[in-house]
Amino acid sequence: MGEQMDVARLRSLIDNVLLTLYTRYGHKELQALCERLGLPSPSEGNTKHERLVASLKACPDDRLPDVAEAVLEQEELAQTERMALQDVLWLGRHYVQIPSRTRRELARDFDLSDHLAYPDRFMALLGRLWHLDNDPLSGWTTTTNSLRNQIERHVIRFPDDWTTEQLFEELGAFEAPHPRFGHFLEGLASSAVLPDEPAQRRFVELANTHLNPTGAQLSQQGETDGYPHFQLVEHGRGTARRPRNLIFATLGKPDIRFTSALDNDIEVAEHADEVLVYDRPIGKQGLLWRHLLSWWQETRGITDQEQAPRSLYSRMEASLPPRSPGQKNLFWHYHHAHRDHLNDVPALLPEIWLHWDPKTLRERGAHAMQNLRMDFLMLLPGNRRVVLEVDGMQHYTRNEGTEPDSTKYAATMAGDRDLKFSGYEVFRFGHDELRDRDRAQPLLADFFAKLLDRSPAGPSQAP
């Protein structure tokens, strides 16, 4: 699940960080600092602190998560500041809930021997996620009662002193926010902490014994440096595979060829302006609007920050069938309802090719794949692939809608079953539900709120 980002809290935390940062930089360095952090250019005159505060005040809410990420990556922070920023960011995104009882039962069964074979890596993980030091700006402390020193003594040097449950208790892991505990589990399963594949899989098997009854699991999502990479996901949702090429917003059937079949590199041979191909890696957040917008700006050389989202929206909207007001209403409503936080919601890709065949359905005959192109695709966190389809009469009738066609309907349902077995979630709307924009809005608001675990957004305007 996930909640809408607490932007007021995030802005306050960033403001507190700026109180510290202004003492580290001179007036001439503030411009470069703001550029690095993604803040608007600082005003001239006044004190350094006033200039930074004015810059933050001018920063729109939807850019604050990116600023916070830049602060976390580039600036040295007190551990309390770092953890507070992380918690607001992570709680505003998709996360998996792990009950306190499950955490405790997992800890009781968890033998740390494999991890203690790599003590420096294990301590680095703890230092990234938990408050270990009395002096939070120091990587070490001479104070003997710091949690870091206690762990080094009672877990690393004398591993029989503390049980794993006691270690988790001291860390605060049982009461920690769900996303922080999730990151902890993913870290414990990672090759950065445990560069030993059999040991990784032993931990994952143990963890999943406890996670599966809660509807969660550590699932392999590819590899990192030759080792398996595990991610915490909701059980039974999503797929372990990550998209390579997204072919969408097509104005006709794309003419595609492989430039490297071994690497799955493709090229649109003709009419490339009629096809959009997103070929960047899809991360654990899924494909968000801001990822798509960044790709659009860079590949089109668009620097105008106001013109870029409008041109992307217009290009995708142009691919929608002119005789399908239901599709147009769905597309309009999604962007209309989420405009105030569009950067943080999944991109809604129209006219998406899920299968591709150089031959036509008539040429392929009985062996043709169903549902070659679908109305919309969303790539959500946890590798969830969500297909949205707006069904007009052509899906279940023949002779221009004058006669029912059970064969055509059965073929559509068979295609849906194939998609679901491949890890897709398929949602179908009847065109009549969405034909009228005013009638469609409450239905779509409720649907997207449930899909994205968000409250329905208030009124706004399309990009």
Residue-averaged pLDDT: 84
Rg, alpha carbons: 25 Å
Give the N-terminus to C-terminus distance in angstroms. 27 Å
The coarse overall form would be globular
Number of strands: 12
- Estimate percent helicity: 40-55%
What low-confidence regions span 5 or more consecutive residues with pLDDT below 50? 136-142, 455-462
**Total separate domains:** 3
**Percentage of residues in strands:** 5-15%
Tally of helical runs: 19
**Biggest sheet character:** 4 strands, mixed
Lateral strand order in the biggest sheet? 7-8-9-12
Structural class: alpha+beta
What does this structure look like?
- This protein is α+β, with helices and mostly antiparallel strands.
- It has 19 helices and 12 strands.
- It has helices spanning 7-21, 30-37, 48-57, 64-74, 79-91, 100-109, 113-116, 119-129, 147-157, 164-171, 178-188, 197-211, 289-300, 307-317, 325-338, 361-364, 406-421, 431-434, 437-452; strands at 216-224, 227-234, 246-248, 255-260, 265-270, 276-278, 349-353, 373-380, 384-391, 397-398, 403-404, 424-430.
- Helix 15 (325-338) crosses helix 19.
